[in-house]
Amino acid sequence: MTDEEIKHVVVELFKKIAPDTEPEKLAPDDDIRHTLEIDSFDALQFVVALDEHFGIETPEEDYGKIATMKNLIYYIQQKKTRLPT
Amino acid sequence: MIEFNMPSLGADMEAGTLREWLVKPGDKVKRGDIIAIVETQKGLIDIEVFDEGVVNQLLIREDEKVPVGTVMALIANGEKGTGKTLQRLGKETETGKPVEEWQPVIAPHLVKASPLAKRIAAEKNIDLQTVKGTGEGGAITKEDVEKAAAQKAVMNEIKPPATESIRMAVAAAMSKSNREIPHYYLQQKIDMRKALAWLVEANKLRGVKQRLLPVVLLIKAVAKALTAVPELNGYWENGFRHKDEINIGFAISLRSGGVMIPAIHNADKKTLDELMTALNYIIPRARAMKLKSSELSTSTITITSLGEANAELVYGVIYPPQVALVGFGSIIEQPWAEQGMLDVRPVITATLAADHRATDGATGSRLLMYINNYLQKPELL
């Protein structure tokens, strides 16, 4: 998957969890939770959705690595390439 | 014969609009069945019954607005005479309107529409009288309603009507609280180091979907503390009425503004995993404004938790007729002095707003001490 394709999926996931927000307008370095006003419950739903859509488990200690769109896409790319095909 | 009444779904509710009957005369019903959908300021609510019987008569038409306590249906349970109320939720006939004035009618349908069309119309706040039906015999179909909804959305893009009614519901309840309840407040800083460390380990053993949030520890600690301080669990109705069940009303903020406070029933008897499951069940439905009557009417105390990266302290306003509200601010790293040593700890500030008619500060203080003690022994929660 290209970065753009991952971003597209991620934006859709955020829209499902937080309707009325505009995740497509997130700048690469924006703090996602702060900008979209996502609480810890919604954040956990997002981590569950990452698992369902990309098959990647995000341990709690990695939450800091997915705080911005740029880091989130990088994180997903890294995790996916490590997965057995 | 049992009377099924328009339930009160909170101190702020005076009337509700019946949107749909899910039963018809002759249908058998049992405890917990959802038999009607009622629209209130808090959205569409599934209304449950709490006894067994056979529906005898439906007395209210769909789309009719009636005061709380109005008899909506008669249900035969083999007993003669009336007087027993099937709907036991909340406080009955709060408005004091005499039920006898009501003239029973059998529900004729005002407009022909499929159940699905009615449900969608209710959800999207479309008046079916204004929709032209293209189905069989002029019946309104799902497509007709969706078309009407799309037209309405174009004309009414600025503000969803639900936002305003939720605001008014919160305004009514909080004004009543401030007018009638003499609040007193206490606060306690709680060291969360042990609780959070325990949670990290507990979550390592769980899959992503089973992960626990810190708030379930807070809910369980409050519920257990209430078993030790029962004076704060119940209602003020011409005197304190203690409730045996500990039903925690959990305040959920809506993105569009306002709060919904569904109940987590018997929270003291639930495991942490069961509490997390309960949250997973109620939070999305509360945000979609789709709750059940029993969830909106049976809380015996309220918890409001601000969550991460928010203000460090919240002084709550009690939700009447309850007598207490426990508030939790964000967990924040703070200097912490203990045994002559200074350290940095994750600290949460718990507050209690309590009704001074029902209890005094000493009682409230005991509750906060118990909450603190339980959070120092998370493995026992």
UniProtKB/TrEMBL annotation, chain A:
Q: What is this protein called?
A: Phosphopantetheine-binding protein
GO BP of this protein? lipid A biosynthetic process
Show the GO MF annotations: acyl binding; acyl carrier activity
UniProt keywords, alphabetically: Phosphopantetheine, Phosphoprotein
A Pfam family of the record is PP-binding
Task: Give every Carrier domain span.
Answer: 1-80
Q: Name one GO cellular component term.
A: membrane
> According to the lineage, what is the superkingdom?
Bacteria
TrEMBL record, chain B:
Alphabetized, the UniProt keywords read:
Acyltransferase, Lipoyl, Transferase
Which co-factors does it depend on?
(R)-lipoate
Boundaries of every Lipoyl-binding domain copy: 1-76
Q: Does the keyword Iron apply?
A: no
Cellular component, GO annotation:
cytoplasm
Query: Per the record's keyword annotation, is Transferase included, yes or no?
Result: yes
An MF annotation (GO) of this entry: acetyltransferase activity
Q: What is its EC number?
A: 2.3.1.-
Domain Peripheral subunit-binding (PSBD) residue range list = 112-149
Q: Which domain of life is it from?
A: Bacteria
Kindly state the subunit structure of this protein: Forms a 24-polypeptide structural core with octahedral symmetry.
What family does this chain come from, according to its entry? Answer: Belongs to the 2-oxoacid dehydrogenase family.
What is the name listed in the Swiss-Prot or TrEMBL entry for this protein?
Dihydrolipoamide acetyltransferase component of pyruvate dehydrogenase complex
Organism, as annotated: Niastella vici
